[in-house]
Amino acid sequence: MSGGGGRWERVRDRVRSSSSSMRGDRQTRTVRLGRVQPQAPGHRTIFCNDREANLPVKFKGNSISTTKYNLLTFLPKGLFEQFRRVANLYFLMISILSTTPISPVHPITNVVPLSLVLFVSLVKEAFEDWKRLLNDRVINSSPIDVLQDQKWESIPWKKLQVGDIIKVKQDGFFPADLLFLASSNPDGVCYIETANLDGETNLKIRKALERTWDYLLPEKAAEFKGEIQCEQPNNSLYTFTGNLIIGKQTLPISPNQILLRGCSLRNTEYIVGAVIFTGHETKVMMNAMNVPSKRSTLERKLDKLILMLFGVLFVMCFIGAIGSGVFINRKHYYLGLNDRVEDQFNPNNRFVVAILTMFTLITLYSTIIPISLYVSIEMIKFIQSTQFINKDLNMYHRESNTPALARTSNLNEELGQVEYIFSDKTGTLTRNLMEFFKCSIAGEVYGHGITEIESGGAQRSGLRIDETKKSSTAVHEKGFNFDDARLMRGAWRNEHDPDACKEFFRCLAICHTVLPEGDESPEKITYQAASPDEAALVVAAKNFGFFFYRRTPTMIMVRESHVEKIGKIQDVSYEILNVLEFNSTRKRQSVICRYPNGRLVLYCKGADTVIYERLAYGNDTIKNVSRGHLEQFGSAGLRTLCLAYRDLNSELYESWNEKFIQAKSTLRDREKKMDEVAELIETDLILIGCTAIEDKLQEGVPSCIETLSRAGIKIWVLTGDKMETAINIAYACSLINNSMKQFVISSETDEIREVESRGDTVETARFMKESVKKELKRCIQEAEHSMHTLSGNKLALIIDGKCLMYALDPQLRVTLLNLSLNCHAVVCCRVSPLQKAQVTSLVKNGARKITLSIGDGANDVSMIQAAHVGVGISGLEGMQAVMASDFAIAQFRFLTDLLLVHGRWSYIRICKVVTYFFYKNLTFTLTQFWFTFQTGFSGQRFYDDWFQSLYNVIFTALPVIIVGLFDKDVSASLSKRYPQLYKEGIKNMFFKWRVLAVWAVFSVYQSLIFFYFTTAASRNSKNASGKLFGLWDVSTMAFTCVVVTVNLRLLMTCNVITRWHHISVIGSILAWFIFIFLYSGIMTPYDRQENIYFVIYVLMSTFFFYLTLLLVPVVALLGDVIYQGLQRWFAPYDYQIIQELHRHEPEQRSRPDLLEIGTAMTVDEERTFAISQLPRETSKHTGFAFDSPGYESFFASLHGVNVPQRAWDVARRASMRSRQPRTSIR
């Protein structure tokens, strides 16, 4: 006990001392000595290799759980989730009501369908959660070596505790967030892969503190008794603030010494680390939040439809209640109302009669709300996502082996209604495969060649550019596509400023964080870089003769050629003293290095705006010339960086380095203080030159954008690039052309520059806001004038980030929105990730338009989550965008298939499913409603309880699911050939209140036929024994007609009828007959089934039954036949016109080829294939229920054949375009 007490006293003493030492930093902190939890709110103290000392703090364990439920919470929480849906809650209320004496139906009528729906939903939830549980068990049981009694013991991950010393072997995963102590590599470094965190497969280097390198072997590691004071757990993956206290020495801990859970160890035999954060407190688990839940627009409108049905239900029940109160009268002596009767039928209290009848009718008419609708839609959407979208070979990218991925099935139909697309540029429209293309050194441009952007711009200007012939020194490899003999093979020594060339190349070779891999030879080495740009610059240095081949935490080795004389090669080691890393705020990266001869140099590369602000005075000629070169490169669509350097003296550097070390050691605002200190030395720079890197457009981007534009979709490009680059990219991908009227709102004007030069930030902000306000008003006026002219040119808006900041001000936001909505294309350049999200939200919330955001990087996540639909591109910038998205694709061009094919089909299918559910339930309920008028509004049921229960669940369930999966108005090829068809979804043509009203009219009509036709016709009908038909005979006959008719009506809505349609419809009708044969063939005394006993056998023994079964569906569907014929004839939808155009074409294969035609054929073969496809462009449509007659003259005229006019052509022509849509061959 004394040992334990002494240990606790030592813990408490440490807490007192650490609290008092930090009191200077936090004056407001109150430290209460003697408490069991000695943790300050802003930081945690960890005692390494000492479990007992950490015990009082009660850190969380390392076991994780990603499940939603456990055994105790599954039922209550699962049921709560289900009853959050209004329809389920409504049916729960109906089920409760049906157990009361006022209910005319057996409780099973409502309990069975509700239970079935809940059972299916809960089983789905349980299955998904079980898979999560199994995955958690595997992870928690993974073994890890922990230091115990001076040796490594293997224990499961879940038993790991904060402060433990562990050993991780090569290719192993880190089980918790660790402080990196020692490595098997002699220089204290290790290489890690962060693919599980951000999707990036590039290796990253981590370096242990030199003070802890010795704690490698278990005997030595057992002596480690350090104390870690660090930040509390948070979700910031790229920051860490803390100090390691060993003895009396305090060492700052940076993210460079932190190994995060989920990352894996590479190219290192093993490492030793101390556990800092465990379990759900690790950074990766704190980032493991779900993507914000999104609901489609159609689903929200479905809620309104359900509410409308509630209203209809209330009106029907109210009418019945009033009728009941009026009808109840003692004059109906045969009802026996003179005796003592229950309250529901007591004429002395008509108000009570009306109220009780109201509740009775609510249970009777409950089928008007389709309980199985949500389950059916979820099933349809799930299959659409997993079987159709995920397995579409047209969206499979062969080079990267990446298929499309629907990460949610909630938004399938939303893809068919998108009106605005917000797209990133780099990696989304472009390939994110950077190639060093040109450069400017000391005011001289180097590099020949024409970029794709220049070529596209020249074509639009009507200019012809001849291909330049490559020189013998031209080199083209991954990351390098440069052709200029003046810099190659040491020829730069003959340039007018060879010293500047030498500094330029050394800056490329030294100023980076790239890791070399493989053999140390120029041909076999590979580079692991944080971005493709950085790798391209290092590859460029290699090709210029400055080959970076090895790095340690403190040294960079470069093999330099032709420096002293042509042909001489020497290995030079540069000592890396400090690395001032790149971030989105600094927009630059600097390295301070020491040459072998003792020279101290700071090399810096970054955005032109940032570098120019930090240049030394003088040498204006090179500055101005280089600025011109930057604009020239930007106009060619190239990505530019400026390179600069500064010579340092030892005194200046030592003084600055003390401040830098102090900033690194602080626990509060460390990043901010380090940036402030970096500003002190990144001044008085000397400009060396600038680089120009080409990022080529992805394949098929221009044709994809053109197709989407024809579909009525407006595309906005939101990029961080310069305005010139963004505009030229927009030209190259057909987003903007010379026929458009362009509005440019830029902060790079002479007036704004003049105000900025005065240095008054307040005045600058006021002036820019006024300038933006004037520009917006001018553009609005010009836009209105342009739209009223005969030419009516399309409009385009180009605005930069600074102006956008003021345009998004609440006072100007509406003006910006009005201008933007009138523009065909919008390009926002130099925008931040936050501004991307703000622009998306502006259109989404301000214009109430359906939006889609697409991007590939972490800076696009906020934009993706802000839009109705987020699409991530699985590119080279990691998987952050994909992990935050709703759908993931590999190439921008796949948007054509995702939207025009799958999105459009899903929208049409879901609309049909919802409207059909509305129709069949309203029809069924109205027959019961009409019967109420014949029963004195007493609430007598017309159908047997089981009929009502199984109507939605069995007899009409499967066919509508088949339609939701397989219905197809036109084929995929025709959907892309006629993109204008997509506009029907944008206008929501198939789920308007008018469409629902048409279905409702036919529901009323058919329900009247079902009820009055069967009841009136059966009044004098007799069975084989001469008895008149009773209630259950008539209702069974009416129900048979309902089941047959609603299933046949579904076939009439289909555009394509497959064997699955036949099987489902015939199967549903057969299911009814099989059920009624069994149900009426037996008698059970325990329920009201005796009413139906032998009914079907009696009915089928009469001729009347067969005549009714033939005539009633025909008469009921006659109105639909006439309406559909007239609608298709005089007011056809666009897709119906396309169907008629291609109705006689042969069937096309349903499965597209996996290989892309362009990569598998010669030019002649491609041309032959394209020509052969023209007359054979086919539709999946296999026949129509109602073919329109006599269109010979109309369609003949489309093909230039002169045929006499027909009378119906006049009406028909009004709905057709004056000319045939142009066909593009791809």
TrEMBL record:
ATP binds at D424, K425, T426, E534, F582, K605, R639, T719, G720, D721, R830, K836, N859, D860. Coiled coil: none annotated. Its main location: membrane. The keyword Ribonucleoprotein does not apply. Residues 882-1132 form the P-type ATPase C-terminal domain. It catalyses: ATP + H2O + phospholipidSide 1 = ADP + phosphate + phospholipidSide 2. Residues 7-16 have a biased composition (Basic and acidic residues). InterPro entries: ATPase_P-typ_cyto_dom_N, ATPase_P-typ_P_site, ATPase_P-typ_TM_dom_sf, ATPase_P-typ_transduc_dom_A_sf, HAD-like_sf, HAD_sf, P-type_ATPase_IV, P-type_ATPase_N. The lineage of its organism: Eukaryota, Viridiplantae, Streptophyta, Embryophyta, Tracheophyta. The chain crosses the membrane at residues 305-328, 351-375, 913-931, 951-970, 991-1014, 1034-1051, 1063-1082, 1094-1118. One of its GO terms (biological process) is defense response to bacterium. One of its GO terms (molecular function) is ATP hydrolysis activity. Belongs to the cation transport ATPase (P-type) (TC 3.A.3) family. Type IV subfamily. PANTHER family: PHOSPHOLIPID-TRANSPORTING ATPASE DNF1-RELATED, PROBABLE PHOSPHOLIPID-TRANSPORTING ATPASE. It comes from Amborella trichopoda. This is Phospholipid-transporting ATPase. Mg(2+) binds at D424, T426, D856, D860. It is an enzyme of class 7 (translocase). The active site is at D424. It is a multi-pass membrane protein. One of its GO terms (cellular component) is plasma membrane. Keywords: ATP-binding, Magnesium, Membrane, Metal-binding, Nucleotide-binding, Translocase, Transmembrane, Transmembrane helix, Transport.
